[in-house]
């Protein structure tokens, strides 16, 4: 059923009260059905999607574009950046789901996504860009990725064009390195599987960015979150570093990591 735009603010408030456990889902549902004559299953979708968005989880049934914009707008007012990030991540998972189901594009929702993603702080935006790039990189042959890394030093341009899309070069390079190193921690080999089937790994600079350390395979260590924090906050000392290898002491233990990629 078509939900009148004028009702959406009230739907939002009810969803929020259900999310805060001030109302049960059944009470919220009854209120909206009785007050506005809405269809029960549409209201259920709103209530469920609200919860999924705040938790960063995929939802299946879609909202209309007006409602989605209204919800996201309110999230920017009522919650912090982390929450907006989760909501947009849920939205992107929803878009992928719908596009997989229909074999087509969901341009309206993609447009909404791109309107709100720019409201996030840069590090959150980078994470989305990273996801996007990872998709592209996954389908690129290994030799092409290696060739890309070899050519890195020849340019100072901070953006790169891949299949007609412009990405920040550093983000793209990190994605290539992660793919070529198979998303594993270079200290303990841990891989973290995400529920969307991809892997999570963090990147640490051997020579810090502030000291002009670059995003190149010989300056990036892929680390699991534990080792990344230990590397940053522990007693860490680099004892040897060249293009092929880095040796470092971390909290009293010595590590030797190969940096070449072939
Ligand atoms: Zn590790």
Number of helical stretches of at least 4 residues: 10
Biggest β-sheet strands, sense, barrel: 3 strands, antiparallel
Q: Give the neighbour order of strands across the main sheet.
A: 7-8-9
| Count of strand segments | 9
SS class: alpha+beta
* Helix content class: 40-55%
Rounded to the nearest angstrom, the distance between the terminal CA atoms is: 56 Å
**Cα shape:** elongated
The SSE order reads HHHHHHHHEEHEEEEHEEE
**Strand portion:** 5-15%
Q: Assembly state here?
A: single chain
The average pLDDT is 92
Global Rg: 22 Å
Q: What count of domains describes the coordinates?
A: 3
InterPro entries: HNH_nuc (IPR003615)
GO molecular function, one term: endonuclease activity
Domain HNH nuclease: 185-234
Protein name: HNH endonuclease
What do these coordinates show?
Helices cover 51% and strands 15% of the residues. Helix 2 crosses helix 3, helix 4 runs parallel beside helix 6 and helix 8 packs across helix 9. Strands 7-8-9 form a three-stranded antiparallel sheet, with helices on one face. It has a two-stranded antiparallel sheet with strand order 1-2. It has helices at residues 8-19, 25-36, 40-54, 65-78, 81-102, 107-117, 122-138, 142-150, 169-180, 225-233; strands at 159-162, 165-168, 192-193, 199-200, 202-205, 220-223, 236-241, 245-250, 253-258. It is of the alpha+beta class and 262 residues long. The protein has three domains: 5-120, no CATH class; 132-180, no CATH class; 181-262, no CATH class. A hairpin with a 3-residue loop joins strand 7 and strand 8. The chain is built from ten helices and nine strands. Residues 185, 187-188, 190, 223-224, 226-227 line the site of zinc ion (ZN). The site of zinc ion has 8 residues, from helix 10.
